[in-house]
Amino acid sequence: MRPVPLLAADVDAGALEVYAHNMRPRQTLSESVSNLVDYRVSGMGEDASFAYEPSIRDDRLAGIAGTIDLILAGPPCQGHSSLNNYSRHDDPKNLLYLAVPAVAVATQATHVIIENVPNVVSDKYGVVQTSVALLRNAGYEVTYGVIAAHKLGWPQTRKRFFIAASRDSRPLDLHTLQAQLARDALPVGWLLQDTLDDVVAGDVMRSVPQMSDENVERIAHLFDNDTYNLPNDIRPECHREGTTYGSSYGRMAWDEPAPTITGGFLTPGRGRFVHPLRRRVLTPREAARVQGFPDWYDFVVDERRPASRAQLTRWIGNAVPTILGQTATLAALAGAKVDRT
After folding, report:
1. Which pLDDT score, from 0 to 100, does residue 201 have?
2. Which of 39, 62, 9, 57 lies closest to 134 in space, CA to CA?
C-alpha cells in the first residue's frame, strides 16, 4: 500500500515545511490540532467521556472527514519525559493528547495511532487512560503498550508508548506483535560504517559544532584510554556527585545499538553521543539515520536558508524510529474485522 497524506498539521512551521517537502501531503496546517475541533471532556481515566459529540471547526478538515483511513499523532512529549526536570508529568500541554481522540471521532477516522514517551502513563491528568476510554466509548477497539526499537532489530535502544485503535477491526496486541517480530538488534556500526570520513564543513547536515577545549579534552580521554564512560574527575563539577545521567559525555560502542537519540545529540554533555570511532559527536545526517530517516529525506528545503542546528536537533531528536511507527500501524491495519451486525 502507498500512503497518501491528506493533511499534516504542526505548530512548528519549519518542521511542517520539511515534512511537506518530502512527503507531499495534500494540505498543511501550521497550527495546533486542538483548534481544529470543538470538544469537551467530562471526567478522567476510565470514567471519561465527551460532554458532547466532537465537531469540526475547520473547513479544510471538514473536507476530508469520512475519508481518513489512518491518523498518526505525536502529541508534545516533553512534559511526560523523565529527562524533563521542570514539569515532571504536570504540564498543561500534556492535555493536547486528548485532542487526538476528539479529531478521530469528529472525522470518523478508521484507525488511530498515538505515540509518546513511555512515561506518558504517569501523567498527572491521566491522558492515556482518558484517551483509551474516549476511543472505546466512541466504538473503537484499542490496544496499547511500549514497543522497543532494539527488540525489533533496529540499532537504537529507543522505546515509545503507543495507542493503536480501530473502528472496524480489533488491533493486534502490541506486545504479542513485538514478540512475533523480535530479532537481535543490529549494531550502530551497521548504520555508520560508510560515514566515517563524511564530515563536510559548511554542510549543516554533515558537520558538527566546534567544541570547547574542555570537551575536546574529555573526548580525547575516551579514545586515549579506550573507554566509553567519562570518569568523574574530568566531568564538570555539577556532574561529579550524584548525577543520574551517567551516560553524558559517553562514547557509543561500535558493535552495540545506539542509545536513545535526543535533541541534545550535538552536545556531548547531554548524552552518549560521541561517535564510536571518531573524536566528535554524530552529525545530523548520522543521527537521522539512527532515527530511521533514509538519506533521501531532505531536512534542508531551501539552500539559501538552511535549517539551524537548533532546528535540526529538535526535529531529528523528537522523531520516532520508523520501525516503531511501522509496527504500531501494522497492529491497527492487520487486525481482525469486527462484526457489529
Report:
1. 85
2. 39
Structural contact between residues 229 and 250, judged by C-beta atoms closer than 8 angstroms: yes
Best CA proximity match to 117, nearest among 150, 80, 153: 80
CA-based nearest residue to 46, from 150, 140, 131: 131
Nearby residues of 149 by Cβ (< 8 Å), 6 or more positions away: 156, 157, 158, 159, 160, 321, 323, 324
Q: What is the dihedral of CA 74, 77, 80, 86, to 10 degrees?
A: -160
Distance CA 279, CA 336 (A): 51
Give me the pLDDT at residue 246, please: 76
| One-character DSSP codes across 61-93 | HHTTTT---EEEE----GGG-TT-TTTTT--GG
- Considering the entire predicted model, what is its pTM? 0.91
Extract the C-alpha cell encoding 180. 512475533
- For 140, 164, 292, 310, the CA distances from 147, given in Å and listed in that order, are 21, 12, 15, 28
Looking at residue 84, its pLDDT comes to 47
Nearest alpha-carbon partner for 262 in 211, 189, 313, 186: 313
Helix%, strand%, coil% for the chain, nearest 5: 35, 15, 50
| pLDDT recorded at residue 85 | 45
Chain CA centroid to CA 161, Å: 10
User: Which residues in the chain come in under a pLDDT of 50?
Assistant: 79-89
- Give catalytic residue positions: 77
321 in Cβ contact with 288 (< 8 Å): no
| Domain topology for 8-181+321-337 | Rossmann fold (3.40.50)
